[in-house]
Amino acid sequence: MNLSVSEENYIKSIYKLEEGQDSVTTNALAYELDTKPASVTDMAKKLKEKKLIAYEKYQGINLTPEGKKAALQIVRRHRLWECFLVEKLAFSWEEVHELAEELEHVRSEKLTNRLSEFLGNPAIDPHGDPIPDAQGKMGKPRTQTSLHKSQAKRLEVMAVSDKSAALLEFLTAKGIRLGTQLDVIERYAFDNSIEIKIRNQPAFTISEQVSKNIMVKAI
Amino acid sequence: MNLSVSEENYIKSIYKLEEGQDSVTTNALAYELDTKPASVTDMAKKLKEKKLIAYEKYQGINLTPEGKKAALQIVRRHRLWECFLVEKLAFSWEEVHELAEELEHVRSEKLTNRLSEFLGNPAIDPHGDPIPDAQGKMGKPRTQTSLHKSQAKRLEVMAVSDKSAALLEFLTAKGIRLGTQLDVIERYAFDNSIEIKIRNQPAFTISEQVSKNIMVKAI
DNA sequence: AATAATATTTAGGTAAATCTAAATAATAAT
DNA sequence: ATTATTATTTAGATTTACCTAAATATTATT
């Protein structure tokens, strides 16, 4: 199956949005891909034709097993390149997402597998996400909850689900990185903001938008 | 200046064909890019608009200084990725061209420079071609003559100008690689084939097409 | 120099991936 | 259960990078 860059981006986004949800809506996909719903409908028809997604008018989108396989290959490439950029080229974790976004579209199994080997077949990428192996097998689908949902009072940052440079820069500025341990001081119901504290630092408040994207586990 | 992948490929090919020639013809470029002359004319207008080439109807194509700068950046990326693939991922020299052809289009100066640094700022790529530095400065534009043109009787292989996998496989099979020293046994005028001999090996004959693409220097 | 051959350009068309605006379906609110 | 709102799809354009076929220039040949 030969996919265009655009088709690959759709498959990857569907895979991402499918997590948790039982199907992906046209609007959500359009927002995720920064495009218009009408364009999504067009592409949905094409991907259905190629048997990569299950799609019926107004019924939302799901990956077929084949589509999921394709998605996992793309995710594998993306996360391996992120490892490469951070470990070998000394990029910081908030810089690598956009570059990996381009590198992931070089579709060569041999290259992918050699790269993985070169990196010591890593199981997680610099953001804490698991890397699918050559067969598409992947460790547990990442951490338990978002900080937004977590009930815990003391927790550890396991991953960040949104890789926009803006968020990652914000987190870096605030001293939040992988493995950072935080205490939840207060949750404000009126705007869902959360006051948190990192050891040896003054407490500060983060918005719902931010807390939704910080993945944590209780400690 | 933001170039599409297609525009970059045109610029790169013009740069390649310009070497020696004083301008590049529509047909030559079409052949090089495996496209049609009409498409080249279309693109020539666009690249002229962007001031990357000098072009007047029926007059052939030349890079402007700006176009040449762009070309050297692309060539730099291409050759650095080739180094990476051969040195770090253990690809053989005949495998890397196609992959580098894709990787070269990731346009990030920071990535390029970090990659170069990671590789120890190499000055030549695995095919023997010099790698432009970050400023576009490049070592002497490679070897003197093709085997086809060379008058010398004993010579050394400095580079291969055509990177098609077919040719590179052929050369590998015959034991011809960078640095290989050969003796010219005979030149057959009727088809321009050449009988050559590598030390400790039986002599064999290569076609004009092959000899045109082997770059040598006399020793 | 006239003609033949070749090279190049123009005109008009196609496919992929997008878009806007309008139409229609599904969902939420009264 | 209507109506209003929101989501989705359709219809028709647009842009990029191609294409073919025909027209026109240039170059080579007699």
From TrEMBL, chains A, B:
<keyword id="KW-0805">Transcription regulation</keyword>
<keyword id="KW-0804">Transcription</keyword>
<dbReference type="InterPro" id="IPR038157">
    <property type="entry name" value="FeoA_core_dom"/>
</dbReference>
<dbReference type="Pfam" id="PF01325">
    <property type="entry name" value="Fe_dep_repress"/>
</dbReference>
<comment type="subunit">
    <text>Homodimer.</text>
</comment>
<dbReference type="GO" id="GO:0003677">
    <property type="term" value="F:DNA binding"/>
</dbReference>
<dbReference type="GO" id="GO:0046983">
    <property type="term" value="F:protein dimerization activity"/>
</dbReference>
<keyword id="KW-0010">Activator</keyword>
<dbReference type="InterPro" id="IPR001367">
    <property type="entry name" value="Fe_dep_repressor"/>
</dbReference>
<dbReference type="GO" id="GO:0046914">
    <property type="term" value="F:transition metal ion binding"/>
</dbReference>
<dbReference type="GO" id="GO:0005737">
    <property type="term" value="C:cytoplasm"/>
</dbReference>
<dbReference type="InterPro" id="IPR036388">
    <property type="entry name" value="WH-like_DNA-bd_sf"/>
</dbReference>
<feature type="domain" description="HTH dtxR-type">
    <location>
        <begin position="3"/>
        <end position="64"/>
    </location>
</feature>
<dbReference type="Pfam" id="PF02742">
    <property type="entry name" value="Fe_dep_repr_C"/>
</dbReference>
<protein>
    <recommendedName>
        <fullName>Transcriptional regulator MntR</fullName>
    </recommendedName>
</protein>
<keyword id="KW-0678">Repressor</keyword>
<dbReference type="InterPro" id="IPR050536">
    <property type="entry name" value="DtxR_MntR_Metal-Reg"/>
</dbReference>
<dbReference type="GO" id="GO:0003700">
    <property type="term" value="F:DNA-binding transcription factor activity"/>
</dbReference>
<keyword id="KW-0464">Manganese</keyword>
<dbReference type="InterPro" id="IPR022689">
    <property type="entry name" value="Iron_dep_repressor"/>
</dbReference>
<dbReference type="InterPro" id="IPR022687">
    <property type="entry name" value="HTH_DTXR"/>
</dbReference>
<keyword id="KW-0963">Cytoplasm</keyword>
<dbReference type="Pfam" id="PF04023">
    <property type="entry name" value="FeoA"/>
</dbReference>
<dbReference type="InterPro" id="IPR036390">
    <property type="entry name" value="WH_DNA-bd_sf"/>
</dbReference>
<dbReference type="InterPro" id="IPR007167">
    <property type="entry name" value="Fe-transptr_FeoA-like"/>
</dbReference>
<comment type="function">
    <text>In the presence of manganese, represses expression of mntH and mntS. Up-regulates expression of mntP.</text>
</comment>
<keyword id="KW-0238">DNA-binding</keyword>
<comment type="similarity">
    <text>Belongs to the DtxR/MntR family.</text>
</comment>
<dbReference type="InterPro" id="IPR036421">
    <property type="entry name" value="Fe_dep_repressor_sf"/>
</dbReference>
